[in-house]
Amino acid sequence: MSSPEKKSDAARNLFRKAVFLKSADAPRDLPVESIAEVAFAGRSNAGKSSALNSIFERRGLAIVSKTPGRTRHINYFGLGDGRFMVDLPGYGYAQVPGTMRDHWQGLLSTYLISRSVLRGLVIVMDARHPLTPLDARLLEWFSVRERPTHLLLTKSDKLTRQQALNQLRIVEARLRTEFHNCSVQLFSGVTGAGVDEARSVVHGWLMQDLHVQSGMSDN
Ligand code: GDP
Q1: Segment 107-119, tens digit of pLDDT
Q2: Domain with 144 in it: what CATH number?
Q3: Relative to the CA of 95, which of 3, 4, 82, 171 has its CA 20 to 30 Å away?
Q4: Does the Cβ of 92 fall within 6 Å of ligand 1?
């Protein structure tokens, strides 16, 4: 299992197994059977549900909401063998009443700070407006966990190739100076650009212990 094709097939096969498990509204609802999970976060409407659907290759699995802020819970998708993909509540939607927003923020921060089986965080951003102050704040306080973060600059189909590459370079430069242990790529749920790359990163995080146990390396 060392050629790039075989790795990408393995990742694709893993994510094709995804089934919706549950929505958690409080830390006590988080599944105890999880041994490894990767969470997806992002501003409401950034394209998080579409990105998850593309990775799973299943159009309707993560609901693509027409109403920003509709994802109110922590949604769990099982991949088998105690591994999960986690869809976190979207943030930054101003029209949500204060108490509800406080509840989500509390849930999100408790999850990100204390969930021990969390292997890494994917943050979905609109390629036209990456690294908003809220995204940067999330990156800042997740950095205390010393776990990797991967940024998906999505809706890249809305930019020309050159514009998209420029955005990528700008974000890469900021990561080099401000945020470490953080990678970035272009993505589009519409054209499928970057889906294999995203799958490969997340698959690597989820299967890390298996690679170590079987003596496999990522080279
Ligand atoms: P979420 O709130 O972050 O889950 O965002 P959604 O996945 O529901 O997407 C918000 C809107 O952006 C929807 O109208 C999607 O069809 C659209 N969208 C999402 N991803 C892409 C993309 O890669 N390209 C384009 N052109 N539109 C996208």
Answers
A1: 888 999 999 999 9
A2: 3.40.50.300
A3: 171
A4: no
